[in-house]
Design brief:
The structure holds 2 protein chains of 2 kinds. Chain A has helices at residues 7-14, 19-37, 44-57, 73-80, 87-105, 117-136, 141-150, 154-177. Chain A is mostly helical. Chain A has a domain at 113-179. Chain A is globular, with a radius of gyration of 19 Å. Chain A starts with 6 loop residues before the first helix and ends with a helix. In chain B, β1 (8-13), α1 (20-30) and β2 form a beta-alpha-beta unit. Chain B has a 4-stranded mixed beta sheet with strand order 1-2-4-3, with helices on one face. The relative contact order of chain B is 0.24. The model of chain B has no long low-confidence stretch (mean pLDDT 91). Chains A and B meet through α8 of A and α1 and α2 of B.
Chain lengths: 179, 80
């Protein structure tokens, strides 16, 4: 019997896992991360560092911005850390490598074609809106929703209400412009 | 003698991300006749989950074929 025909391969490596399995694993991993580092999981904060590090490297002065004020965690990350010494950046890299490995193991890797210019416009506008939103909401669906709600923080619940509002507006725009 | 003409239709959803394949499938299927088969071509793994899930919940017959690396064809036979 070939490896790809085994039940293990089909159920664990190739087929998508049930939502409940994913939810339980994410919860366990977030508890482990919180226990080990003192911070719950987040994704987008390191992106703000990446942008600021690049901006600084080409001559900008992000250290003068309020977000990166001296003495704050963001300020310390900007001035004292690099991509390789910032835990969040390494975790984000791990997500990309892990996802790539999972896709290759399942024989589902594919470089997709861009279908039309509307996809590009939607991706750029959506990315900008999500990046801006994640900063003013203190996180994305991971940092603000997943970790915020799990930490009994009110901001996580407010985020949860408004993500439904955002998804409703987004789905109307999607049907209008991408269908 | 009355001959019913059952037909195959293809829906190209290559390069489309969720939830576009599902929305396009729902729209296309609503215009077909009972017994018609809709073949949805996808290369987005979430669509491989949510398109068949929706079609089965609606009571249609569903079959998935892996046609290449990261490419699938979902066969949906409209039953009602």
């Amino acid at each position: 019997m070939k490896l790809t025909e085994t039940n293990f391969y089909q159920k664990i490596v190739r087929d998508p896992w049930p939502y409940v399995t994913g939810a339980v694993l994410l919860a366990i991993l977030n508890i482990a991360l919180f226990t080990a580092t003192g911070n719950p999981w987040g994704v987008t904060t390191p992106f703000s560092y990446w942008g600021a590090w690049i901006w600084k490297a080409i001559g900008g002065h992000p250290e003068s911005w309020g977000y990166f004020a001296e003495g704050t965690a963001h300020g310390k990350a900007l001035m004292q850390q690099t991509f390789l010494t910032n835990g969040g950046s390494i975790m984000n890299l791990g997500i990309v490598i892990g996802a790539l490995f999972a896709t290759l193991a399942a024989s589902q890797f594919k470089i997709k074609k861009i279908k039309n210019i509307r996809q590009v416009i939607a991706a750029v506008l959506g990315g900008l809106a999500m990046g801006y939103g994640a900063r003013i909401a203190f996180g994305c669906n991971v940092g603000a929703f997943f970790s915020g709600v799990a930490s009994f923080s009110l901001h996580g619940w407010i985020y949860t209400i408004f993500i439904f509002v955002g998804a409703w507006i987004g789905s109307k725009l999607l049907v209008k412009y991408l269908m | 003698m009355e001959v019913s003409l059952l037909a195959d239709y293809r829906l190209d959803c290559m390069g489309e991300a969720c939830p576009v394949p599902l929305l396009k499938t729902q729209k296309k299927l609503s215009g077909l006749n009972i017994g018609d088969v809709l073949i949805v071509e996808i290369d987005h793994s979430c669509a491989m989950k949510n398109v068949p899930e929706w079609a089965r919940k609606e009571g249609h017959n569903v079959d998935i074929e892996e046609t290449g690396d990261g490419e699938w064809e979902i066969y949906i036979e409209k039953t009602k």
